[in-house]
Design a protein that fits this description.
The protein is of the alpha/beta class. Helix content is about 50%, strand content about 10%. The strands form 4 sheets. Strands 6-5-4-7-8-9 form a 6-stranded parallel β-sheet. Helix 10 (about 205-235) packs across helix 22. It is globular and about 70 Å long. The relative contact order is 0.13. The mean pLDDT is about 95.
Length: about 625
């Protein structure tokens, strides 16, 4: 492959050097597999193919002249809306099931069934008890935690009608949802209804389908995902600003390297504790290693970084490249964003892929079932496997890129309030006087369709230049970390207003707010700002963006963000363009219905211009300079 083509794959130097190494070794990566798919199926890209019954599959030619229909009579509007609705359901299920696992871990910890887990943030426990009207006077933390967990589990199936965290929203937003009939209920109820509505012969009105898609996504954002974040903080500690290091250069040539990859902190927290065990450290030295190095990949990396300062080896498209360094003894995986290709690639090296979740088996991986009831013991067994594998490393095949970058993370809602002196007033004042023009939440995945990290970095840099405070989660936050944008010194790249605010508060112009499930933190901040100003969230100078999104989780996230009244720009095209009516509803008419809509713009510079126009329009309507 020529250098110019390789350079179009990523803007990250460590990624480019590892791609060159992969080519030299004859190893394939996600980019190679993407190229072999070209040209991708046009019907699938437009969303006009249907497999919802066995009379098909049916596909609609969007350029066929006369309106076309599938065997059952469904047209492009119905097929595209159904496909979108099922994608929302899958994404919402992924994040909310993560939330359910956290709730159950808290319940097991509170009832003594998972003794290795403790309540790390008692203040947050008490705050949640007060918010949920759970009696806490004269009761033990364990009793209170058990009641909170029971209340949370009640919300997943939902018999009581509405979600507790909706009370955080402005009344205007809640009234709008009620009027539209999309007040979210329990996630289980909403997803079952998605599958029912999209079965052959049920709902075939594209507007009605999409309204239920909003309801389902909102149940994720304000239900399952929010419970995941809140109770992770209770169990593992609410993040505070912490320094970390990112990129593949965090791997150690003379240590046992363990990468924790996936999304659920119940596992990764125990792996970190096990790696500090004196017996295992002694074993590592006996095997010739100087120690045990833990690093994270994707959102597990963000979780560990925020609470322990554990290094982050990379984001989604770097998971294969980490193995190609030849220095990874074990990659421990749980759920979500784990490429099935990893096991085949690992077979070319000594790396063990160790799967742990009953929900996610990977042929070729070593499966070690993880249970909260014996969490630390199982974690030690897993770490021992990695340490024993160090002797199988081939030093001649080790190649670790030099690139690594320090950064600051851990800006939970509580940490932001602390930085502001305990009140939102300084932030509100900065927005009102124009020092900060608005807030943009940039989130999402990597996608080999576009240059790795380019969309994230370019959009972020352009917005901070224009005095927009940027908040980030997930793979976007890791991209900015690698570029140095999560350091207080990066304020030098910001506009004069934002730079002054950052220097006064000693914070970066880009705030790392956590993993992708922690987008719920951004919702809480948005609701708090709206409540403080006495307006709906849709009236605020806020915007969202997902420049490189690829997963169904991102579909749910984007939907609950616009459902919460926040304009959102997508950098890769969703499969809805096969229906003019659905595309028009999502990118235009939705603003009239819910106060926000999507825009699609693959050029991050043009996306920044769209966001700035939106923020200035909202400022003008609020009478702000």
């Amino acid at each position: 492959m020529d250098q110019e083509k390789r350079n179009r794959r990523s803007v990250d130097p460590a990624t480019l050097v590892m791609l060159a190494r992969a080519e030299k070794e004859g190893l394939e990566t996600a980019w190679d597999r993407h190229d072999r798919q070209e040209p991708q199926c046009g019907f699938g890209l437009l969303g006009v193919c249907c497999r919802n019954c066995n009379m098909g599959p049916c596909r609609i030619d969007p350029f066929g002249g006369e309106p076309q229909k599938g065997v059952c009579g469904a047209g492009a509007d119905t097929i595209v809306a159904r496909n979108l609705l099922r994608a929302i359901a899958a994404g919402a299920a992924a994040h909310s099931d993560h939330g359910r696992d956290i709730v159950e871990t808290l319940l097991h910890a509170a009832t003594g069934q998972a003794p290795d887990y403790q309540i790390k943030d008692r203040d947050k426990l008490m705050a949640l008890a007060a918010e949920l009207s759970i009696e806490h006077e004269g009761r033990s933390d364990q009793e209170i935690a058990a009641d909170i967990a029971a209340a949370a589990l009640e919300e997943f199936g939902m018999r009581k009608g509405t979600l507790a965290f909706l009370n955080r929203l402005p009344a205007q937003r809640r009234e709008l949802w009620s009027k539209l009939g999309i007040t979210p209920r329990g996630i289980d109820r909403e997803i079952v209804e998605v599958m029912h509505r999209t079965h052959i012969g049920v709902d075939n009105d594209h507007v009605n389908l999409i309204l239920h898609g909003l309801r389902t996504a909102l149940s994720d954002g304000w239900g399952g995902s929010m419970w995941a974040t809140e109770l992770s903080d209770v169990l593992f500690g609410t993040p505070r600003p912490v320094e970390g290091v990112s990129n593949l250069g965090v791997l150690k040539e003379d240590q046992v390297n363990i990468i924790v990859h996936g999304h659920e902190p119940t596992l990764s927290e125990m792996i970190v504790a096990a790696a500090r065990d004196p017996e295992l450290l002694e074993l590592a030295q006996a095997k010739g290693a100087r120690g045990i190095s833990i690093s994270g990949m994707c959102c597990t990396g963000n979780e560990l970084l925020m609470r322990h300062g554990v290094p982050v080896a990379g984001n989604f498209l770097q998971q294969e490249l980490a193995i190609i360094t030849g220095a990874v003894e074990a990659m421990i995986v749980d759920v979500q964003c784990i490429m099935p290709a990893l096991t085949g690639l690992a077979a070319c090296y000594h790396t063990e892929i160790i799967s742990t979740s009953p929900k996610a088996r990977f042929p070729g991986a070593k499966h070690v079932p993880f249970e909260e009831k014996s969490a630390l013991k199982i974690a030690k067994d897993i770490v021992r496997l990695a340490v024993e594998n160090y002797a199988n490393r081939n030093p001649e095949r080790v190649f670790i890129p030099e690139e690594k970058m320090k950064f600051m993370a851990g800006f939970s809602v509580e940490a932001i309030l602390s930085a502001l002196g305990g009140t939102l007033d300084p932030l509100l004042d900065a927005i009102k006087d124009g020092s900060i023009k608005g807030i943009a939440a940039i989130v999402g995945c990597n996608n080999p369709k576009v240059t790795h990290d380019y969309g994230h970095i370019t959009l972020t840099e352009e917005l901070i230049k224009k005095d927009v405070l940027v908040v980030e989660t997930g793979c976007t936050a890791i991209a900015s970390a690698k570029k140095g944008l999560l350091l207080p010194e990066a304020a030098q790249q910001a506009g004069p207003g934002l730079r002054a605010v950052c220097e006064a508060l000693k914070i970066p112009p880009v705030l790392h707010m956590g993993s992708c499930v922690d987008i719920s933190r951004i919702l809480v901040v948005a609701a708090a700002v709206a409540n403080a100003l006495g307006v709906d969230t849709s009236e605020l100078p806020l915007a969202g963006a997902a420049p490189e999104w690829m997963s169904e989780k991102a579909v749910s996230i984007g939907t609950y963000v616009i459902g919460s009244g926040i304009y959102t720009v997508l950098g890769t095209v969703p499969p809805v363009l096969g229906s003019e009516n659905v595309a028009a509803l999502l990118t235009g008419r939705a603003s009239e219905v819910i106060g926000a809509a999507f825009a699609v713009e693959s050029d991050p510079l043009k996306a920044a211009a769209l966001i700035m126009d939106h923020l200035e329009n909202k400022r003008a309507k609020l009478g702000l300079p």
